[in-house]
């Protein structure tokens, strides 16, 4: 009988979740809805797949999922079916346009609107089941800092925060970064700035957000949070056209500014965190339950302090369209 071993590279370091392998699970999240998070997750997966990686995108916006709409897919089995025993994991896995795989969630399911022990157990088991079988797993979370969103992010080795140059989006990105640092002990996160007005604006936005973080956030163990900018995606009419056609920008308009920006982000991510290697996924895999992890508190860190209000005022009053030079 032949055996398959997981290929890893030397130089692995402990991750935010305490694992010592190369990071392979990345949460893509945002403080504010409507910043293009799901569109970026899908196109980033396509760009990484084009580089030869085996990529899985999990729609973790449980109850309000729309990754299926972005990809124009109609699944016969969803995460809900897997969680309820009505289907196996391999039945729910679909190959999306762009040559990556997806696990789609149901929409309008009230049972996933809050973090119950059952949801916690099922999601934890899901991540532990799929992580060895992909070079990279992207978790497309819901927006905001609800307990469901924060728990999904806690399952990831690294967090990628999506923001736009708008003051409200920056204020919500700041709040997300603060909560992830205070609750999950994350000392670094990645940042993608979407819908910039011109090339180079993303660097200015990242520097501005980092400045506010340095001024107003001090972690319990001391120090602050470092943002690692992955890049920017310039506002591009091709994005709207692709969304209306329910196609990926990477496929429909590969030469567009937006597609080029996403390719650059994929290259930057692959440089920072090279592929981790994977095992084949066995057929008929069931997501059985594990003991529930410790609860994730949300109330204390989510409360706004006077420093938070000053930080939001700084972000709201900043002119992010100034020439970054």
Please provide a written account of the structure.
- The chain has 325 residues and is an alpha/beta fold.
- It is 40% helix and 16% strand.
- The protein has 13 helices and eight strands.
- It has helices at residues 37-50, 67-71, 79-83, 89-92, 117-130, 147-154, 167-184, 201-216, 237-245, 249-252, 257-272, 299-302, 306-317; strands spanning 25-30, 55-59, 93-96, 100-103, 136-143, 158-163, 188-196, 226-234.
- Strands 3-4-2-5-1-6-7-8 form an eight-stranded mixed beta sheet, with helices on both faces.
- Helix 7 links the parallel strand 6 (158-163) and strand 7 (188-196).
- It is globular.
- The termini are far apart.
- Residues 1-20, 288-302 and 319-325 have low confidence and may be disordered.
How are the secondary structure elements laid out?
Elements: E1 25-30, H1 37-50, E2 55-59, H2 67-71, H3 79-83, H4 89-92, E3 93-96, E4 100-103, H5 117-130, E5 136-143, H6 147-154, E6 158-163, H7 167-184, E7 188-196, H8 201-216, E8 226-234, H9 237-245, H10 249-252, H11 257-272, H12 299-302, H13 306-317
Parallel strand pairs: 1-5, 1-6, 2-4, 2-5, 6-7, 7-8
Antiparallel strand pairs: 3-4
Features:
single chain, 325 residues, alpha/beta, 13 helices, 8 strands, 40% helix, disordered C terminus
């Amino acid at each position: 009988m032949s055996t398959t071993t997981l290929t890893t590279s030397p130089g692995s370091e402990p991750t935010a979740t305490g694992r010592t392998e190369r990071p392979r699970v990345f949460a893509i999240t945002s403080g504010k809805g409507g910043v293009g998070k799901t569109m970026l997750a899908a196109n980033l997966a396509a760009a990484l797949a084009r580089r030869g990686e085996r990529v899985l995108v999990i729609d973790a916006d449980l109850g309000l999922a729309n990754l299926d709409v972005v990809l124009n897919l109609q699944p016969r089995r969803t995460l809900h079916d897997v969680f309820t025993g009505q289907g196996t994991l391999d039945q729910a896995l679909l190959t999306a346009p762009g040559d990556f795989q997806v696990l789609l969630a149901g929409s309008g399911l009230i049972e996933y609107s809050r973090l119950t022990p059952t949801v916690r157990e099922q999601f934890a088991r899901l991540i532990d089941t799929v992580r060895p079988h992909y070079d990279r797993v992207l978790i497309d979370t819901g927006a905001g800092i609800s307990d469901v969103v924060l728990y999904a992010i806690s399952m990831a080795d690294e967090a990628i925060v999506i923001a736009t140059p708008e003051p409200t989006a920056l204020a919500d990105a700041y709040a997300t970064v603060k909560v992830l640092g205070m609750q999950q002990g994350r000392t670094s996160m990645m940042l993608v700035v979407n819908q910039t007005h011109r090339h180079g604006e993303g660097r200015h936005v990242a520097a501005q957000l980092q400045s506010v973080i340095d001024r107003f956030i001090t972690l319990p163990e001391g120090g602050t949070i470092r943002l690692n900018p992955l890049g920017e995606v310039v506002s591009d009419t091709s994005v709207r056209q692709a969304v209306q056609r329910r196609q990926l920008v990477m496929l429909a308009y590969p030469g567009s500014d937006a597609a080029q920006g996403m390719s650059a982000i994929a290259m930057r991510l692959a440089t920072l965190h090279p592929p981790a290697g994977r095992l084949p996924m066995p057929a008929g895999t069931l997501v059985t339950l594990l003991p529930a992890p410790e609860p994730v508190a949300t109330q204390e860190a989510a409360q706004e302090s006077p420093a938070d209000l000053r930080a939001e005022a700084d972000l709201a009053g900043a002119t992010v369209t100034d020439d970054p030079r």
